[in-house]
């Protein structure tokens, strides 16, 4: 047995209960019975004391003792650099069958740091010698290259991954914010020599984003969960963590840009129109926008992949996820059944005159503008014109009947006066259309507004987000109520 391993196995100096106010993380509970608990007392950004306890094999006890010793006396940022490889090395190496002990000990450490990240504790002061930036990493190529570019600019880089969703019935490997994604992002950050924090926002995400997704479908709307999540849940929380880490800003791998029109920061499109994601960020308030930076703003996706490949990043060719994070590996129908109790319920398919022309399995399976899956044949292709949740009906008609030049909005936020609005985008991938707001409402929050379009738009779906532009900048947004 290696002498270092034996020394940690015999070391009981930090074994015991958590101290008052300590941040605690635990990992394990697998069939082998191994369990690690690690607690950190953090004072002014430094780990003043670390304590631990374990159950299971000797390797589990030695690994947890090693990580407690390594963390104690360091800064929170230094502790956030520790990974399973560091723990295994401190033990003199572990045989493959025992490497899980180092992984569980590392998981316990990072869950303790996650508890600290979720608190109001100041975790670091701004560095004296250079600027610090917090980079949001998801385990994908875009965020990895964003972190790499910020590091290579000479900045003091820390990283964060948000955990939003854990569900045994979804495929965590395909989601950007699952427990599996957190571990992958942490491994990637450590490979770049960067500290990594996890921010657990699952409770807020379930309540605000998934709750609205389920409720909206039940009431006949088609919410856009990504706009809501970015605007109200994850980005502001990461920016706030950045402040407590002494960071001057939050960088993400989104394709978007921040501009100042003389009245404050606003979002505008990235250089690559095929990848522009500013629509998905449109609900961010200006005070958060002002703390953001987008290292990929001037790059195309192929250029990003080439940078990753040149630097040997393991995610250089990783495919992009096409699903909503909480739908990864499962279908919307099954998800709504399990989480919203929205079960199939037969109802009538009606034409635009109210005549019954078919049957469907539930209004919540349809959205305005949908063509596929209607299940009714006609002399011309049929599209969903509207749904009625109360009556459980779906109205269909020809494509021309979808067209509208006026859209009713609710919950409108204007960063600039309504008179500045000259175009709008009504779906993520739809083109911008010339538009104006009736009555030229003032800047601020409006209960409702009428959006007038310069040309017809087909498929204004209730629940989707209307993003409002003044020139090239996003000056507001609202929720589509109807045409």
Structural class by secondary-structure content: alpha+beta
Total individual domains:
4
What is the mean predicted local confidence, pLDDT?
Answer: 92
In the sheet with the most strands, the strands line up as 15-18-17-16-19-20
Q: Just give the CATH class of the largest domain.
A: Alpha Beta
Task: Describe this entry's structure for a reader.
- The chain is α+β, with helices and mostly antiparallel strands and 483 residues long.
- It has four domains: 115 residues, Alpha-Beta Complex (Sufe protein. Chain: A); 196 residues, Rossmann fold (3-Layer(aba) Sandwich), CATH 3.40.50; 54 residues, Roll (SH3 type barrels), CATH 2.30.30; 82 residues, Translation factors (Elongation Factor Tu (Ef-tu), domain 3, Beta Barrel).
- Helices cover 28% and strands 27% of the residues.
- It contains twelve helices and 20 strands.
- The strands form five sheets. It has a six-stranded antiparallel barrel with strand order 15-18-17-16-19-20. The chain has a five-stranded parallel β-sheet with strand order 6-5-4-7-10, with helices on both faces.
- Helix 6 crosses helix 11.
- The longest helix is centred in the middle third of the chain and has 20 residues.
- The chain is globular and about 85 Å long.
């Amino acid at each position: 047995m290696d002498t270092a391993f034996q020394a940690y196995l015999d070391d009981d100096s930090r074994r015991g209960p958590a101290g008052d106010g300590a941040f605690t993380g635990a990992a394990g509970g697998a069939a082998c019975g191994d369990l690690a608990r690690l607690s950190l007392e953090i004072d002014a950004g430094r780990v003043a004391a670390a304590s631990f306890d374990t159950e299971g094999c000797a390797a589990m006890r030695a690994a947890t003792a090693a990580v407690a010793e390594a963390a104690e006396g360091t800064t929170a940022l230094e502790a956030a650099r520790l990974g399973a490889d560091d723990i295994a090395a401190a033990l003199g190496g572990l045989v493959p069958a025992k490497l899980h002990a180092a992984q569980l000990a590392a998981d316990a450490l990072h869950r303790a740091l996650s508890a600290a990240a979720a608190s109001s504790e100041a975790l670091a002061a701004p560095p004296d010698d250079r600027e610090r930036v917090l980079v949001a990493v998801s385990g994908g190529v875009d965020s990895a290259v964003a972190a790499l570019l910020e590091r290579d600019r000479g900045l003091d880089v820390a990283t964060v991954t948000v955990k939003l969703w854990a569900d045994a019935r979804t495929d965590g490997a395909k989601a950007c914010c699952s427990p599996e994604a957190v571990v992958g992002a942490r491994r990637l950050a450590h490979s770049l020599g960067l500290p990594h924090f996890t921010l657990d926002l699952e409770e807020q995400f379930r309540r605000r984003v998934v709750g609205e997704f389920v409720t909206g479908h039940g009431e006949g709307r088609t919410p856009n969960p990504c706009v809501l999540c970015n605007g109200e849940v994850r980005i502001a929380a990461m920016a706030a963590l950045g402040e407590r880490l002494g960071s001057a800003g939050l960088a993400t791998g989104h394709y978007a840009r921040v501009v100042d029109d003389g009245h404050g920061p606003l979002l505008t499109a990235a250089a690559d129109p095929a990848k522009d994601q500013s629509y998905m960020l449109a609900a961010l308030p200006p005070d958060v926008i002002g703390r953001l930076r987008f290292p990929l703003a001037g790059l195309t996706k192929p250029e990003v992949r080439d940078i990753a490949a040149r630097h040997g990043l393991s995610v250089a060719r990783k495919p992009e996820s096409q699903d909503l994070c909480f739908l990864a590996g499962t279908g919307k129908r099954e998800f709504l059944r399990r989480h919203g109790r929205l079960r199939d319920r037969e109802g009538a398919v009606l034409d635009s005159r109210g005549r019954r022309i078919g049957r469907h399995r539930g209004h919540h399976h349809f959205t305005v503008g949908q063509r596929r899956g209607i299940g009714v044949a006609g002399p011309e292709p049929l599209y969903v014109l509207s749904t009625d949740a109360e009556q459980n009906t779906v109205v269909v008609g020809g494509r021309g009947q979808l067209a509208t030049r006026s859209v009713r909005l609710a919950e409108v936020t204007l960063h600039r006066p309504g008179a500045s609005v000259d175009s709008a985008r009504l779906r993520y991938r739809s083109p911008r259309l010339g538009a104006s707001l009736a009555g030229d409402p003032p800047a601020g929050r409006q209960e409702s507004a009428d959006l007038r379009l310069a040309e017809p738009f087909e498929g204004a779906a209730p629940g989707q987000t209307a993003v409002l532009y003044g020139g090239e900048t996003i000056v507001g947004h609202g929720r589509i109520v109807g045409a």
